[in-house]
Design brief:
Number of strands of chain B: 2
Largest interface: A-B, 70 and 75 residues
Strand order of the largest sheet of chain A: 1-2-3
Strand content of chain A: under 5%
Largest sheet of chain B: 2 strands, antiparallel
Structural class of chain B: mainly alpha
Order of helices and strands of chain B: HHEEHHHHHHHHHHHHHHHHH
Shape of chain B: globular
Helix content of chain B: over 70%
Order of helices and strands of chain A: HHHEEHHEHHHHHHHHHHHHHHHHHHHHH
Strand content of chain B: under 5%
Distance between the termini of chain A: 77 Å
Strand order of the largest sheet of chain B: 1-2
Distance between the termini of chain B: 20 Å
Number of helices of chain B: 19
Number of helices of chain A: 26
Largest sheet of chain A: 3 strands, antiparallel
Number of strands of chain A: 3
Oligomer: heterodimer
Number of domains of chain B: 1
Radius of gyration of chain B: 21 Å
């Protein structure tokens, strides 16, 4: 089993290197590697289902508790299998998506490298290993977002994504420091230590999860990340990497018991609604989906907080499949119209009906239409949130929002008015294969709930008659929202379109103060500190000149020598050398004399 | 064989030999310098093989020099010395490969590089205070000439500033050495004995004054804010290899002195002032990062990040001083600080090469005038991105384990300082990503479109550094098993 653990990480990692070097044949190699890379995680899942557990430690730093290792347990196996499955589909799809792209080897190897570190993240044993892979997926995410370097939006989007998540990762670092200081161990499954250290652990991990999973008020980096290639959005920014926050919460539920989970529930519930509102107002299909992702991740936060970790993971799986499918279908339309702006995509669904069919299936699943996959998981979330009225109401609103924000683009895509403008390019078949695979999974994924719950050790998944009825009511509510949307005041729509002004808030609260401090300190350094040093030097020189008048003969020659030597600069190296050494020796002698005097005075 | 003495003597002798080379042998100085460095490297490789990781100071070579004063040639290694001496030889090797000034390497340049190499090695390996001090000052002389003769436009100002500033720093060090000598009985310059016996163990005023004298000297060298203003000037004006050596090796002398002298010989005084030193380290780390954020000259930006990274080292050393005799936190902090010195040497060395390469091609390092470089020079761009990510502490690259160990060790003693220091990782991320976005992304203007990608000589200069910082990031034990401060920090043999 340990071999399978290392293979899960190593196979895509090696594949990334090979693909980078293969050049023209890179697409087929990348596809093959990705499919092959899904085998070890599948075997791990089978192993976990039959009760296998394993861990393998790699002595990374000396000292107790600082090893880095991988582990097999039900949670890590379920995550690894999800990542591998979606990853394989997205890579096969990418063969088509990047077919016309001369730099595709770089993109494909980047995706494989991401798969490797993402497997490391979900298979990590202990918080040190988790932190390492957590940071690495962030860096690869930035690299992949910035893939199109000339695009004016892509590099800034990448920088924002990396900086926002890394700011939140300060919480992760602090949690690791506090946990290690308190317990001397970074192993999973510990209870939260008491006092201030425990508070740091709790708050830090929650902050890290908020950043990675694009929860309010840090959700807007995800919209910027949409400037990356669509397969990247599908794999990193909807199904796997952003879900790492949910995984962290579920993994750390013992450490987070009490107020941290309470905080998680509120953040998730508020984000679920706020991001749904944001998604409703976007003019760009990928940004609609980004808002939807933040909202759905918020629902998983609620599930984790409401004591239903198995439900959160179930929702993670169904959402990963459905949302990745939506992105893959979007990529097909994007190739047809060279744009993801909703206006440009008007009618694109009619031009490419197979892709549109996939889009609709995945949308119905995410919007929780029975009997599709995400219906079951969302129903469990509604039921789990039921004891907490506030969360419950917010969850229902978010559920209504999800059917609304997906209905709106579906209607635009199917609009007869814009049909007939799409072009068909190379690689469409590969792309449709990807869409089809995820559509099938979205259709039937609901059956996974039971086995997944048993694997994760949950006795049963919560569901009640009321929750079922309310879930369906929320679905209808979504339709009402779409009908009412044009009547919403423009100011509200504007706020929603601009991410409820969170980017401006972040700028005011963080970026402007830091930039101002940096500029002020820079001015202080140049005009204050450094000028002071130069002034001291000038004063010394002036004193030397003054003494020159007094003590003419001795000092005269040395000063002249210095000036002359400096004046000749580079050319006369030999003479300069002797001049400086002489000066230097003189300083040493003077210094020694000074020392002798001081010592003598001290001795007196 | 006196392997350590040999590793010092060969570069110094080769420096003399450079002067005797005939002017017509144009490639000879470079070959001589490379050969001498290879011999030093081999000597240190033998030392690695003979090094016993379970012990402290060892392989001491000793020869009487001025017996009446108790001055002797005494060199030896413990984990810190061996690691830093090895870093020194590696950085000199790549600097000689890349060269200084006109090509091929002139006799004067080769001589200065070799003089600097020998004296730096002597400094890190010295176990006698007189050797230590002479080596400390010799490095100033050699570095002065490297900047003054082969630097950029404003080189003379920068060289003088560097020389005077650090000379001012070296005088209190001399005072401190004499004070330690006078307070030991019998009088000795033997650093091994001084580290074991702690002559100024009492908490009197004299211990504080001696501590302060050493501290100021080493703080200027490290440098700590507010003693740092020589550094940006010297870095910006120094030739590329000069900057690599200055940041990679010479800054380490300050932090090395803080550990070797202040921490090992004056633990009591350091314990009293540990909080103040840690706070200075914190201020340096944040100040350096914030100033780097405001720079548009790539070289100046890198120079300020050095202040940030060395600030972390000082925080770690101070935390170790605060914890007392032993303990896990103390060893983590010092292991991390030494590893950070190694990692910073490799990563910042690479960064200064990167800055030098672009200046040579585009004749500017102003980030505002550069754009789209990744398209024009994919290999150069990837190298830069890798070095940037290493410098911002990405896991898998050498600075992550170093900073993590420092933070872990410090958090135990000074949780607030460690917590604020962690925020620095966001600032460094911001400044490096901003630079990447500005210069390497975006449209490629016509005037930059024909820049050549990395040349063979450049690849040969950076490849060893990159290989080492990647290897150390993946498996930090490669050097941590040698550094292993638990065995030498208390001054044991």
């Amino acid at each position: 089993m340990t071999v399978l653990l290392w293979l899960s990480v190593g196979l895509p990692g090696l594949g990334a290197l090979v693909v980078r070097l293969t050049g023209r044949r890179s697409p087929s190699v990348a596809g093959a590697v990705a499919v092959a890379s899904a085998v070890p995680p599948a075997l791990l899942l089978a192993g976990a289902a039959t009760g296998s557990r394993a861990s393998s430690d790699f002595h990374w730093l000396p000292g107790e508790g600082l090893g880095v290792g991988l582990r097999l347990d039900p949670l890590s196996a379920a995550m690894a299998a999800t990542v591998a499955g979606v990853g394989a589909v997205v890579l096969v799809y990418s063969i088509g998506y990047f077919a016309r792209d001369e730099r595709r080897a770089s993109a494909l190897s980047g995706l494989l490298a991401f798969l490797a570190v993402m497997q490391g993240l979900v298979l990590a044993d202990g918080y040190l290993a988790l932190l390492i892979f957590w940071e690495l997926v962030g860096a690869l995410s930035a690299r992949l977002i910035a893939y199109t370097r000339e695009d004016p939006a892509a590099p800034p989007g990448a920088v924002r994504a990396f900086l926002t998540t890394r700011s939140a990762d300060v919480g992760f670092y602090l949690a690791v420091l506090a946990l290690f200081t308190a317990t001397g161990s970074l192993a999973f499954g510990q209870l939260r230590p008491g006092g201030g250290l425990g508070a740091i652990v709790g708050a830090g991990l929650v902050l890290a999860a908020i950043g990675k999973s694009a929860q309010a008020p840090l959700q807007n980096w995800l919209a910027g990340a949409m400037a990356g290639p669509t397969p990247v959005s599908a794999l990193l920014h909807s199904s796997t990497m952003v879900a790492a926050g949910v995984y962290l919460l579920v993994r750390s539920r013992m450490l987070l018991a009490g107020w941290p989970l309470e905080l998680v529930g509120w953040v998730g519930a508020v984000t679920a609604v706020a991001a749904a509102v944001i998604a409703l107002a976007q003019r760009d299909l990928k940004r609609v989906l980004a808002g939807s992702t933040a909202s759905q991740l918020g629902l998983m936060f609620v599930a984790a907080a409401a004591g239903a970790p198995a439900v959160a993971i179930f929702q993670l799986v169904t959402h990963a499949v459905g949302k990745a499918g939506l992105f893959l279908a979007t990529g097909v339309f994007q190739h047809g119209r060279d744009s993801v702006a909703l206006e440009q995509l008007r009618g694109a669904g009619r031009d490419d009906r197979p892709a549109f069919a996939g889009f609709v299936i995945c949308a119905l699943s995410i919007a929780a239409v029975p009997p599709l996959a995400a219906f079951w998981s969302k129903d469990h979330i509604v039921a789990a949130a039921q004891p907490r009225t506030a969360w419950f109401v917010l969850v229902l609103l978010a559920a209504a929002g999800s059917s609304a924000y997906l209905l709106r683009p579906a209607l635009i895509l199917w609009d007869r008015a814009g049909a007939g403008r799409s072009k068909t390019g190379a690689g469409r078949m590969w792309m449709l294969c990807g869409v089809a695979a995820l559509s099938v999974a979205s259709l039937g994924g609901g059956v996974l709930g039971g086995p997944l719950a048993r694997l994760l050790g949950a006795r049963s998944l919560p569901s009640t008659g009321e929750s079922l009825a309310l879930s369906l009511a929320a679905l209808v509510g979504g339709g009402v929202i779409v009908l009412l949307a044009p009547r919403v005041p423009a100011a509200v729509r504007g706020a929603a379109e601009h991410q409820l002004y969170t980017p401006a808030l972040q700028r005011l609260a963080v970026e402007v103060p830091v930039a101002t401090t940096s500029r002020l300190l820079s001015a202080f350094e140049l005009r204050g500190l450094d000028r002071g040093v130069d002034a001291a030097a000038a004063a010394t020189l002036a004193a030397a000149r003054a003494s020159e008048w007094i003590e003419r003969r001795g000092v005269d020659a040395a000063v002249d020598g210095l000036a002359a030597a400096v004046g000749r600069g580079g050319a006369a190296s030999r003479r300069l050398q002797s001049g400086r050494l002489y000066e230097y020796l003189r300083d040493a002698v003077l210094g020694a004399v000074a020392v002798a005097v001081i010592v003598a005075l001290a001795a007196l | 064989m006196p392997w350590l003495s040999l590793s010092i003597a060969v570069p110094l002798l080769a420096a003399l030999l450079c002067a005797l080379l005939p002017a017509c042998a144009r490639g000879a100085p470079r070959l001589l310098a490379l050969g001498a460095t290879a011999v030093s490297l081999a000597c240190l490789a033998v030392t690695w093989a003979r090094f016993d990781t379970g012990r402290g100071m060892q392989l001491v070579e000793h020869a009487a020099w001025i017996p009446t004063l108790g001055v002797s040639w005494r060199v030896g290694v413990d984990g810190m010395s061996l690691a830093l001496a090895s870093l020194t030889v590696v950085l000199f090797a790549v600097s000689i490969v890349y060269g200084v000034g006109p090509r091929p390497l002139s006799r004067a340049a080769a001589g200065m590089l070799l003089l600097l190499e020998g004296s730096t090695l002597a400094f890190f390996l010295a176990e006698d205070f007189v050797v230590f001090y002479v080596a400390f000052d010799l490095t100033l002389v050699a570095m002065y000439f490297l900047i003054a003769l082969w630097g950029e436009e404003n080189r003379r100002y920068a060289a003088i500033k560097f020389f005077l500033y650090t000379l001012v720093g070296s005088l209190p060090v001399l005072l401190g050495i004499i004070a330690l000598y006078l307070d030991s009985s019998p009088h000795t310059f033997d650093m091994i004995r001084l580290a074991r016996e702690h002559p100024l163990a009492g908490d009197g005023l004299s211990a504080s004054l001696v501590f302060l004298a050493f501290f100021v000297g080493f703080a200027i060298k490290t440098p700590l804010v507010p003693f740092h203003t020589w550094l940006p000037a010297a870095h910006v004006e120094a030739p590329t290899s000069g900057s690599v050596l200055l940041a990679g090796v010479l800054l380490k002398m300050g932090a090395y002195g803080l550990i070797r002298v202040n921490l090992q010989m004056l633990p009591g005084a350091f314990h009293r002032y540990a909080l103040a030193v840690a706070l200075l380290g914190l201020v340096s780390a944040l100040y350096g990062a914030l100033l780097a954020l405001a720079q548009s000259d790539l070289k100046r930006l890198i120079a300020y990040t050095s202040i940030n990274h060395m600030g972390y080292v000082v925080i770690g050393v101070a935390a170790a001083a605060a914890t007392g005799i032993s303990g896990r936190a103390r060893n983590l902090a010092i292991d991390g600080a030494v590893l950070q010195m190694i990692a910073h040497g490799l990563v910042t060395g690479t960064l200064f090469f990167v800055a030098g390469f672009i200046k040579e091609r585009a004749h500017t390092r102003d980030l505002r005038q550069l754009s789209g470089l990744l398209r024009a020079m994919p290999w150069y761009g990837s190298l830069t991105a890798l070095a940037f990510f290493a410098s911002l502490g990405l896991p898998g690259l050498a600075q992550f384990p170093a900073e993590l160990e420092i933070f872990l060790g410090t958090f135990d003693v000074y949780p607030a300082i460690a917590s604020v220091a962690v925020v620095g990782i966001v600032l460094t991320a911001a400044l490096f990503l901003r630079a990447l976005q500005q210069a390497f992304m975006g449209e490629l203007p016509e005037r930059l479109a024909r820049l050549p990608d990395l040349r063979r000589r450049e690849v040969m200069a950076v490849a060893p550094l990159v290989a080492l910082f990647v290897a150390l990031g993946l498996y930090p034990r490669l050097v941590l098993y040698v550094i292993d401060s638990a065995h030498w920090l208390a001054g044991g043999l």
